[in-house]
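Hi all, long-time lurker, first post. I run a small reading group and we've been trying to get comfortable going from sequence to structure in the token notation. Rather than ask abstract questions, I figured I'd post a concrete chain and ask someone more experienced to write out its structure so we can walk through it together at our next meeting. Sequence below, copied exactly:
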Amino acid sequence: MEGLLRGPLLMTAYRMVFISPTSASFDTSEGRGTRSGNAALHGMTSVNDASIAYVAAQLFFSLSSKATFTKNKDNGAIEFYTSIRAFFMDPDFKVDVEELLQWWNEQIFPNVIVVDNAAGMNHHLV
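-- Answer (accepted) --
Happy to help. Here is the structure in token form:
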């Protein structure tokens, strides 16, 4: 499990998709964008399994030799997405998944406080 779904390329891709392309860049010479990223636009304050699987599948496809993304079996990205989602849903990996999601949230949303109350988990921006 060590390092699973924690690679720097996946992290960079996630930031590009959900935070903003400039947040994933190490080159600050061009400045920062002023538009809100997808996470802010949609009120996203935590990382979830579907968002990780989505970005991993997009990254898988972008690194493949396929010219177009199709939903056929030859793609591989859809099967990859499905396998990642199956991992997250497997009760045998519950503790590993909780640790992984905690790690992701610390990386992507470090300024969010998680409050565990009777109504369930709530995420609040600091």
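A couple of things your group might point at:
The CA atoms of residues 72 and 119 lie 41 Å apart.
The helical segments are 8-19, 38-41, 49-63, 77-89, 94-108.
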